[in-house]
Amino acid sequence: MRVQEAIDLPVAFLDWLARIMEEAEAGGEWPEPMCYAATALIPKAGGAPEDGRTKKRPITVASLWYRAYASIRYQELIS
């Protein structure tokens, strides 16, 4: 889901999602799908080192909902 698609969702859905997040914070148990993230290994610029190993960088993609939640909570912490 793209960010604009999430913004266009009905307010009732976003309210429901906010309640899920609040319950997760209060009870310490997150919905299972939010506990997983996909990780891919992306080759680093500059090619392989002389010993033949491939230099790779791990990139992890979490769900849009987790990223939005984490961003909001982070902004609250630093303010």
Please count the beta strands (DSSP E, at least 2 residues each): 2
Secondary structure class reads: alpha+beta
Mean pLDDT: 83
The largest pleated sheet is described as:
2 strands, antiparallel
Specify the helix fraction band.
40-55%
Which shape, going by the Cα principal axes? elongated
What is the strand arrangement across the widest sheet? 1-2
Strand content: 15-25%
Distance between the termini: 29 Å
Rg from Cα: 18 Å
Q: What is the element string, with H for helices and E for strands?
A: HHEEH
Q: How large is the count of helical segments?
A: 3
Which spans of ≥5 residues are poorly predicted at pLDDT below 50?
Answer: none
Can you describe what's shown?
The protein has 79 residues and is α+β, with helices and mostly antiparallel strands. The chain has three helices and two strands. It has a two-stranded antiparallel sheet with strand order 1-2.
Topology:
Layout: H1 3-7, H2 11-27, E1 38-43, E2 56-61, H3 64-78
Antiparallel strand pairs: 1-2
Could you list some keywords that capture this structure?
79 residues; 47% helix; alpha+beta; two-stranded antiparallel ribbon; elongated
